[in-house]
Design goal:
- There is one protein chain.
- This protein is α+β, with helices and mostly antiparallel strands.
- The protein contains 3 helices and 9 strands; from the N terminus they run H-E-E-E-E-E-E-E-H-E-E-H.
- A hairpin with a 5-residue loop joins strand 1 and strand 2.
Length: 167
Amino acid sequence: MVKKHILTVTLASLLVMSAHAQEQTENRRWTLQSSLTTGAEERVSCMLVFPTEEGKPQLRISMANQRDPARMTFELRGVGALAEKDQGKVADVALTIGSRTVEEGLEATWRESNEGRISFRTTEPGGALLEPIARSLTMTVKAGETTYEYDLAGSRRAITELRKCLR
């Protein structure tokens, strides 16, 4: 009887822990921002802001809906001082989605604002990166000697919304 009770309590606690883990993933918030530029070169720009993680720079990815294949822009806010002057260059930036290294040897621009931020653009069209981001569990950005890893769990809906925004 005691063994049955212990087994029941153990199973119940596992179910509670499982529900709690799911809750944490669902409560993570990706924020979508968009802007419209009108005139001769009308375009929509869409930005996906990743959930804030303690101890990591805030990651934002953005694209513009243009006729030419648009490249994706990455911005990390809160990286500290990575260059000697405002708008200085940070060499050897790399992007890995899941286990696939997408870009290496990129150059980022560092700005002093927002506790230090860097931004860089992919060389390949950004649209091709959306599905790998939605399917992968992690994304890693290496800037100089520092590597930042981001959890992509639960990002599929956010990527779908970014695609809708770009149409």
